[in-house]
Amino acid sequence: MCGALNEQKNPRTAEILEQDALYGTKLDVLFLQESSQSFADLALTRRLGMELMDVHVPGNRDPSRDQNSLILTKKGAWTDPQDVSEEVAARLAEDHGGDSPIAPGDLAVFKVTRVLDGKPYLLASFHGDTNGLATKDVVDVIHSYHKHDAKDASLLFGLDANTHFDDSTPAKLAYVGDFLQNVDYHGMESCYGLDPAVLQHTTFNARTYLQPQLNKAVRADEKDTSPMVDKNPK
Does residue 78 sit in helix, strand or coil? Predict the structure, then answer.
C-alpha cells in the first residue's frame, strides 16, 4: 500500500494518465490540482509529457509545495501557450488589498489556440482551500479576466472547488448552492449541472485507525453518519 500510494504515487499517476490518453477518453485537456513539482518533472521524462501531452506549469508556482495546479493539453491539438497565471493572481491580490486569498501555484491560467480551427481558449486550473472560502473570489477574477482580457476566447475551467452540502456556516464552509449560484450569475455552466438538490458527492473519505490521530478515526459502520467523514461535492 505504501509503495503504490506513496513511494510510487507519481509514476503510477503518470501511468494512469498515459493509459487514459491512449485508450480511454482521448484527452484533449486535463486539469490537475495539488500536483508536486516532481510529478511535473517526471511527466516530461515519460511518454505522458514526451509524446502525449504538453505540460503547462504556472510560472509563479512554489516548487517546494505539493499543491500546484497544472494544465495538460494534447500534443498537436493546441498551440501558442501563454502563461497568464501571475497576471491573474496579481489581480486577485489587488482586489483583496494586496493580501491574496490563495497561495503561489494554486491557480494556473493559460491562453492557447486550438489547431483544429484557430479558435482561442482560456484554460484555468485551481486548487481551493480546504473549506472552499477562496473559490468564489477565484471564479470572480477568472470571469473578469475572461470578459476584459480574453473576450474572444472560450473558457474551460477545471477546479477543486472544495464546496460542501452543509449550508449552516457559510462563513466557515463554502456552500455548494452559493457556489453554483455564482457560476450561473457569471453565465458559466457546470458539467455537474447547476441544481444543488440533485448533486452527488465527489469526495467520500475518512481517516482509518492506521494513523496517529485516533480521535479523528471513523469506524467502518459509521461511515455514513460520522461528522468526521468528508462526503461532499468538491
Answer: strand
